[in-house]
Design brief:
The chain is of the alpha+beta class. Helix content is 51%, strand content 16%. The protein has helices at 5-14, 18-67, 102-108, 169-204, 206-219, 235-290, 299-328, 339-353, 379-396, 427-430, 454-464, and strands spanning 86-91, 96-99, 132-135, 142-151, 158-167, 334-338, 359-363, 374-378, 403-410, 413-420, 468-473, 479-486. A 5-stranded antiparallel beta sheet has the order 2-1-5-4-3. A 5-stranded mixed beta sheet has the order 7-9-10-12-11, covered by helices on one side. A two-stranded antiparallel ribbon has the order 6-8. A hairpin with a 4-residue loop joins strand 1 and strand 2. The longest helix is centred in the middle third of the chain and has 56 residues, at 235-290. The protein is rod-shaped, with a radius of gyration of 54 Å.
Length: 488
């Protein structure tokens, strides 16, 4: 189906630049405004000039009506009245007499006088009819005419009707001249207005040109570019403000994506490194055993090593699976749990793992711990948090070093602190220990630590509960892990 003319015009219009559209609209509105004002002005001028002609007609008709008689007009059209007038007298007995000027008829033509009144009836009045416009024998010209009754000067009796007409050629000439002048002036105004509109529109759209230039640089990959600010009360200022906000978000999202990609690459690299060691050990022992290189008395030792490496790898895979589930945002099994009971269990676990340790349960400010500390949370996940932290304490602090578990609340936040008195962590490493696979020992020696996922799991679980974990130095030496969980 072919598009209609209106659709083609609309499609053509949509392809034009905004500056061209604005200049075209300004010029069009200016031309329409001038045309309407010119039309109104010419109409008012025509009405005024015609009113003047009517006034002349009425005054002259009154004078001629008083002085008219059979002797006033000759049959050949000559008489002693103003020569611009065309006079036609129709007597009561049916005779017609005329008065006119040949020069006037040559210039304005002869008026074509219709039956302005019903001559078979009585006189219209003692005065006259209203002036009307009648055509001329010359095309494009006209006359203004009216009819008055004529009375005999001697007897005072009704003797006929007299039609008096004045040419409108001067009026029409004045109107045409005025229209010509106004048309020329209007064209000049439209041209100058269109040029001025073009200059002003281009100047007004300069900020948009700047936006276009900046957008080109951004498209080339420079996300640090920003648009020049303008007053927010203007359209360009509001647009610049919105685009700058959007660019900031895009830049942050791009940086976050790059950071995420680097994090994923590092995660894959670290996971591969952590899994490669136990796999290599298992593969090596299995190959040695299959080749008969393991003496009979060392078979139990080799199988024990294979089992330990398998358990180590299973633990690592389980930690990775836990982190993956946290990243997926799987729903938690939320229920009210008592952190005091979990802390009691942690005290028991620490003493079971190292009977030589002194483990105390206290309040945050050194007072008696609260009787209960209820929070809505997933019991298994929060228990895993305590398990991981206890495991770190046992692994990284000397045997027999004391540990305190402090509990309390601050507003609507429950607080748990696990304070050890071991070697602690350097301040430069405290901000990174919650990263996955991060270990203060860059050599990744198994004798000095685990895989580096324990605190990452703690941070992930607490984040899923809208809580957080932080590290500070224990008073007197050591490390304090502070856990915060919302109570509502």
């Amino acid at each position: 189906m072919h598009p209609s003319l209106a659709q083609r015009v609309e499609a053509w219009w949509d392809t034009k630049p905004l500056a061209s559209q604005l200049v075209t609209l300004i010029t069009f509105l200016l031309a329409v405004g001038l045309s309407l004002s010119g039309t109104v002005m010419i109409g008012l001028l025509q009405r005024h000039l015609t009113s003047q002609i009517d006034d002349q007609l009425i005054a002259t008709a009154h004078t001629i009506q008083i002085s008219a008689s059979s002797a006033t007009f000759a049959a050949d059209g000559q008489g002693a009245i103003p020569t611009l007038y065309y006079v036609h007298i129709h007597d009561a007995d049916g005779q017609d007499r005329y008065l006119y000027s040949e020069d006037t008829l040559k210039a304005s033509g002869t008026p074509i006088l219709p039956e302005l009144i019903d001559t078979s009836s009585a006189p219209i009045s003692s005065f006259r009819t209203l002036p009307v416009t009648v055509p001329s024998s010359k095309t494009g010209l006209g006359w203004r005419a009216l009819v008055v009754p004529v009375y005999d000067q001697d007897t005072g009796l009704f003797s006929g009707y007299m039609t008096i007409a004045l040419p409108l050629s001067d009026v029409q000439h004045t109107l045409r001249t005025t229209a010509s002048y106004f048309t020329v002036a209007g064209l000049i105004i439209v041209i100058i207005g269109g040029w001025a509109g073009h200059v002003l529109v281009r100047r007004a759209l300069l900020p948009l040109r700047s936006i276009e230039s900046t957008a080109g640089k951004i498209a080339a990959g420079d996300l640090t570019k920003r648009l020049t600010p303008h007053p927010p009360t203007t359209e360009v200022g509001s647009l610049s403000l919105s685009l700058n906000s959007m660019l900031t978000q895009v830049e942050q999202s791009f940086e976050a994506r790059q950071a995420s990609e680097r994090k994923i690459k590092r995660f894959v690299s670290d996971a591969s490194h952590e899994l490669r060691t136990p796999l290599a050990a298992i593969s090596g022992y299995c190959e040695l055993y299959s080749m008969g290189g393991v003496p009979a008395e060392r078979i139990d030792e080799v199988m024990g090593r294979i089992g330990s490496e398998s358990a180590r790898m299973a633990t690592l895979v389980e930690d990775l699976l836990t982190l993956a589930r946290l990243d997926e945002g799987r729903p938690l099994d939320i229920a009210d749990i008592d952190l005091v009971k979990l802390a009691d269990n942690a005290v028991f676990d620490l003493q079971a793992l190292d009977p030589t340790r002194t483990v105390g349960l206290t309040g945050i400010n050194g007072r008696t711990p609260p009787m209960t500390l209820i929070v809505p949370a997933d019991r298994d996940r929060i228990s895993q948090v305590f398990t991981n932290l206890i495991g770190n304490i046992v692994r990284y602090t000397p045997d027999g070093s004391p540990v305190e578990i402090a509990l309390g609340r601050s507003g609507d936040t429950a607080i748990v602190e696990l304070r050890d008195h071991g070697p602690g962590i350097d301040e430069t490493d405290r901000g990174r220990v919650f990263e996955r696979f991060y270990r203060a020992d860059s050599s990744r020696n198994r004798r000095s630590g685990g895989s580096g996922l324990g605190l990452a799991i703690v941070s992930g679980i607490l984040a899923a509960h809208r809580g957080n974990a932080s590290l500070t130095k224990t008073k007197g030496g050591g490390l304090t892990v502070r856990i915060e969980l919302p109570m509502a």
